[in-house]
Design brief:
Blueprint lengths: L1 E2 L5 H4 L3 E6 L7 H5 L4 E6 L4 E5 L16 E6 L2 H4 L11 H11 L8 H38 L3 H4 L19 H8 L1 H21 L31 H31 L6 H27 L14 H21 L16 H26 L11 H28 L17 H8 L1 H29 L11 H14 L5 H26 L3 H4 L5 H34 L1 H14 L15 H19 L2 E7 L1 H11 L3 H4 L2 E6 L3 H8 L1 H4 L1 H11 L2 E6 L21 E5 L27 H17 L10 E2 L2
Parallel strand pairs: 2-5, 2-6, 6-7, 7-8, 8-9
Antiparallel strand pairs: 1-10, 3-4, 4-5
Helix pairs in contact: 4-5, 4-13, 5-7, 5-8, 5-9, 5-12, 5-13, 7-11, 8-9, 9-10, 9-11, 10-11, 12-13, 12-17, 13-14, 13-17, 13-19, 14-17, 14-19, 15-16, 15-17, 19-20, 21-22
InterPro entries: AB_hydrolase_fold
Keywords: Membrane, Transmembrane, Transmembrane helix
Protein name: Integral membrane protein
Length: 777
């Protein structure tokens, strides 16, 4: 017990505050507070705290209330605000690889392996930047400037391409100048990503921590996750460093395409020896710069013990150095070379195979590191034996490959008219052979995925039949009918599909690695697309190869078109933008630790917002506070509670409902939300209750180690859903199956909230009017 100042009138009467935090998809403050008249009391249009208009002066008249004052923290605009959020769809692979960083197993006593895990994820993220930059170069430099502009049959009828067509003989007609001009496209894309990353940092992730760097209570800090550290939600230095490194890597990739094409001509018979020497020297400089970029990514990870306010000088020097090298490379490529003509594909098309092999090797090393960490400190229910992070990293690489192949095939199909890209029946050669092989493995991958989904569907039907026997037992006093029982049992069975996600992801990831390796081997072994490489084979093999190639090209093309269409719709339609926002709600909770071009971390704005509000309100009033989080809001609430000093936590209770804290976060992110970490949260907040339903596909129980006699259990549930089987006096109309929504409509919600406030009052006695107060710390 420590001395505290005399309480304000609010504390003297026991005024309490309920701070509501919504979940994925967002909602309105009017819906959260159940009142059309609400006022924003603090915050801005992006994220703010709202109250009922009648509660604005609640602290000035505490004796008039028996229920807690309710406030709503609305943060949905952080992920689904203006139309520019639709552009974030292009950043999907970057977001997924960032998730892999946070999925590492627990690291008790394995500091070196933990650092190796983070390093490997950052290197995979760097390869994704190089891959997508290479895709932009493939479209702009190879397909457009080198192949189409260099072929009169392709450039004819394309007025926008006529000024640099090889057939016109203009100043831009030589291949090197065409390539130098086209390099402006991937360079502009890189600049846009750099600007977007810098801008989103200023808008989302600049909130300072709300408490000192030390925690004054006596609990062992090792049990807590890194989320309680003051610098966890503020990583300016690492984001700036990675942004500089990835920007430089992208610009150097564009420069390498230019130098490779020009030096290939200079080193061939008839080339200029002086230009050949210059090209070799420039290539060596680019290689040295690339090694320095890799060193920059490897040298330092996140620092969370204190807010990382300072930025390195490197963050300003590195991108501009790479930009200078790109300009020099463009001048070198554009230099006059009589007799140079473009034919076939742009030299250096094997870069995609080297990237794929590098990604595969890094993923395998990541799997070894993850497995070693998991075996050293296994956590119950961790998916895939600790290999969730490598599986998700594989998914990120696959998404990058699909996007690369998709855009290359669609542009090639558009440029060569009715011909089939890569089959030799059009005016241009088409994209690199490997991209066609990668597209061709998509149909077998989809076939396996459909088979897995069929197995899940059969299991769900069987489980529903079993549940039909037990569902009526929950409603003993009501008449039962088969259709209603099947509906309830089906909701419970479908909710359980969430727990089957790990083995589906693991199977798909393993198959993706195998098929990706096979695509590289096929492309390099045959140097031809699958449909032509299988010529002369048995009819069944040849037909299968041609079918896979045709379907793969169609799949990646359709995926690319759907991505553009979805992005366009999300740009114009707020409802569609909220759907995209749900994806970001789940994927961008974590800070940008691996890829700086990933969508911004909304929690770096939301967690400080909530922490500041809880701390300032309790210090000003001396009252009690319940932070009430639904779904993803419960994760934000837990993260904010971890950031509170002990004196404030003694006045705060936590109420979670429909919460993925253990079911999703505890399993997939064991180093941060594992059982030991959640048990530490239970010890820290003293008063915590969790409501859950069997029909909820997202939320679930929070079973903690040590729950037993004499220990206050966290879970309250499963709640009955639906509340009534049929028509009753209390429910004259059929009650709906609520699943993940409307937890506050359950009577248990109000009872649990009242019990929490009562327990909090017993833990923190409310002093009488005018007396000096004491609060536990």
């Amino acid at each position: 017990m420590t001395e505290a100042r005399a309480p304000a009138p609010a504390a003297a009467s026991g005024l309490a505050l309920e701070l509501l935090v919504h979940g994925v998809g967002g909602t309105t403050p009017q819906a959260m507070l159940g009142d059309p008249r609400t006022v924003r009391v603090t915050g801005d249009a992006v994220a703010g705290i709202h109250r009922r208009a009648g509660d604005l002066d609640a602290e000035d008249r505490p004796g008039e209330r028996r229920e807690p004052v309710r406030e709503a923290y609305v943060w949905s605009n952080l992920t689904s605000g203006d139309g520019s959020r639709a552009l974030w769809l292009v950043l999907l692979p970057f977001m997924v690889i960032n998730l892999a960083h946070w999925m590492r197993p627990t690291s008790e006593g394995r500091t070196t392996t933990t650092r190796a895990y983070g390093l490997l994820v950052r290197l995979i993220a760097l390869t994704l930047t190089v891959l997508l930059t290479a895709a932009a170069c493939e479209v702009a430099l190879d397909l457009t400037a080198w192949q189409c502009a260099g072929t009169p049959a392709c450039s004819a009828g394309k007025a926008w391409l006529g000024f640099m067509s090889a057939g016109r003989g203009g100043w831009w007609s030589p291949p090197g100048r065409r390539l130098a001009l086209a390099a402006a496209v991937p360079a502009a894309v890189t600049g846009l990503l750099w600007l977007l990353s810098r801008r989103t940092w200023s808008a989302y992730e600049t909130q300072p921590p709300a408490r000192p760097d030390t925690d004054e209570d006596g609990h062992a800090p090792r049990r807590r996750p890194a989320l309680h550290l003051p610098g966890f939600w503020y990583g300016r230095r690492i984001v700036a460093r990675l942004r500089a490194a990835h920007t430089a890597a992208a610009l150097l990739t564009v420069a390498a395409f230019l130098v490779q094409a020009a030096s290939h001509h200079d080193g061939s018979p008839g080339g200029s020896p002086d230009l050949d020497a210059l090209g070799r020297g420039l290539g060596a400089v680019l290689a040295a710069a690339a090694l320095f970029v890799v060193h920059t990514v490897c040298r330092r990870g996140r620092s969370e013990d204190a807010p990382d306010h300072t930025a390195d000088r490197l963050t300003a020097i590195l991108p501009f150095t790479a930009l200078g090298l790109l300009l020099v490379s463009a001048v070198y490529a554009a230099w006059d070379r009589p007799g140079w003509q473009s034919h076939g594909m742009l030299p250096g098309d094997r870069v995609f195979g080297l990237i794929a092999l590098g990604q595969g090797a890094l993923v395998l090393l990541l799997a070894l590191a993850a497995r070693r960490l998991h075996r050293a400190a296994p956590v119950e229910r961790t998916p895939l034996g600790g290999l969730a992070g490598p599986a998700v990293a594989t998914l990120a690489c696959a998404l990058g490959g699909v996007m690369t192949a998709g855009v290359a095939h669609r542009v090639a199909d558009w440029l060569d008219g009715p011909a089939t890209p890569g089959m030799g029946d059009g005016p241009i050669g088409g994209p690199p052979v490997l991209l066609t092989w990668q597209a061709s493995v998509i149909p077998p991958l989809f076939s396996v995925l459909l088979l897995l989904l069929l197995v899940l569907a059969v299991r769900t039907v069987r489980l529903r039949k079993l549940l039909c026997r037990s569902v009526p037992d929950g409603y003993p006093d009501e008449r039962h009918d088969q259709a209603r029982t099947r509906a309830i049992a089906g909701s419970i069975a479908r909710a359980g599909l969430t727990d089957a996600t790990p083995w589906v992801l693991g199977t798909v990831a393993a198959l993706t690695l195998l098929l990706g390796g096979g695509a590289v081997a096929g492309a390099w072994g045959t140097n031809d697309v699958p449909g032509r490489a299988a010529a002369g084979a048995p009819a069944a093999v040849e037909d299968a190869a041609q079918t896979a190639q045709a379907l793969g090209s169609w799949c990646v093309g359709l995926g690319f078109v759907l991505l553009i269409a979805w992005g366009r719709r999300a740009y114009r339609d707020p409802a569609a933008r909220r759907t995209v926002g749900i994806l970001w709600d789940v994927g961008t909770f974590w800070p940008r630790a691996a890829h700086p071009f990933a969508p911004p971390c909304y929690a770096e704005r939301a967690v400080p917002d909530l922490t500041w509000r809880m701390r300032t309100w309790t210090e000003r009033t001396g009252g009690r506070l319940v932070i009430s989080g639904h779904s993803q809001g419960s994760v934000l609430a837990a993260a904010a509670v971890w950031q509170l000093p002990a004196a404030t936590r003694s006045r705060v209770a936590l109420l979670t409902y429909g919460s993925p804290l253990e079911r999703l976060y505890g399993r997939w992110f064991p180093a941060y939300f594992g059982p030991v970490k959640l048990a530490a949260l239970h010890d820290d907040v003293h008063c915590w209750c969790n409501l859950w339903r069997l029909t909820d596909p997202i939320g679930g129980p929070v079973s903690l180690p040590g729950d037993g006699p004499g220990v206050a259990a966290v879970d309250r549930g499963p709640l009955k859903d639906p509340l009534a089987y049929g028509r009753t006096a209390e429910h004259p109309l059929p009650a709906g199956i609520l699943g993940h929504s409307q937890y506050q409509s359950d009577p248990e919600f109000a009872r649990t909230r009242a019990a929490l406030l009562a327990r909090l009052a017993a833990w923190m006695p409310v002093p009488s009017q005018g007396s000096a107060g004491r609060s536990s710390a």
